[in-house]
UniProtKB/TrEMBL annotation:
UniProt-listed GO biological process terms: response to antibiotic
Protein name: Bleomycin resistance protein
Record keyword Lyase present: no
Lineage of the species this protein comes from: Bacteria, Candidatus Roizmaniibacteriota
InterPro entries to which the protein is assigned, alphabetical: Bleomycin-R, Glyas_Bleomycin-R_OHBP_Dase, Glyas_Fos-R_dOase_dom, VOC_core
Domain VOC: residue ranges: 2-132
Signal peptide start-end: none
UniProt keywords, alphabetically: Antibiotic resistance
Native source organism of the sequence: Candidatus Roizmanbacteria bacterium CG22_combo_CG10-13_8_21_14_all_34_12
Length: 138
């Protein structure tokens, strides 16, 4: 397995609830896990992240963690099918934070389109699933 150059490790409030959310609802693949501390390495269509049960190890914290975790950041996760994510969430009665939005980002003279949704995971991290709509010229 090749590891991405940047890998977010998310401390979570309830490890089992978060693991179920990512693997059973969102269809992330569990690459491996450890029991002490509770930790999992997950992947989804080329994206990778790690989750670990919250602990009191001050070395790894820059402040007291409080819900919602991850304030001020969102994680963009590329997907081939945003509708599939929407359907998986609906099947599990899990709410969207923001429904489908089409966004176009300008890079030089080209616009890159994305179909996006926002979700808050069980610990409050904001996830933005993004499906490419292709490119168009200015």
């Amino acid at each position: 397995m090749r590891f991405n150059n940047i890998l977010p490790e998310l401390y979570v409030v309830d490890f089992q609830k978060s693991l179920n959310f990512y693997t059973k609802i969102l269809d992330f693949k569990l690459e491996y896990e450890q029991l002490d501390p509770l930790f999992a390495f997950l992947s989804y269509q080329g994206s990778q992240l790690m989750i670990q049960q919250e602990d009191d190890d001050e070395e790894w914290h820059n402040g007291k963690p409080e819900y919602p975790y991850g304030r001020g950041v969102n994680f963009q996760i590329e997907t081939k099918d945003v509708q599939k994510i929407i359907d998986l969430l609906a099947k599990n009665n899990y709410p969207l934070k923001r429904g489908v939005k089409e966004s176009w980002y300008k890079v030089n003279d080209t616009f890159h389109g994305h179909r996006e949704i926002l979700i808050m995971d069980p610990s409050g991290y904001l996830l933005r699933f993004s499906q490419s709509l292709g490119v168009k010229k200015e």
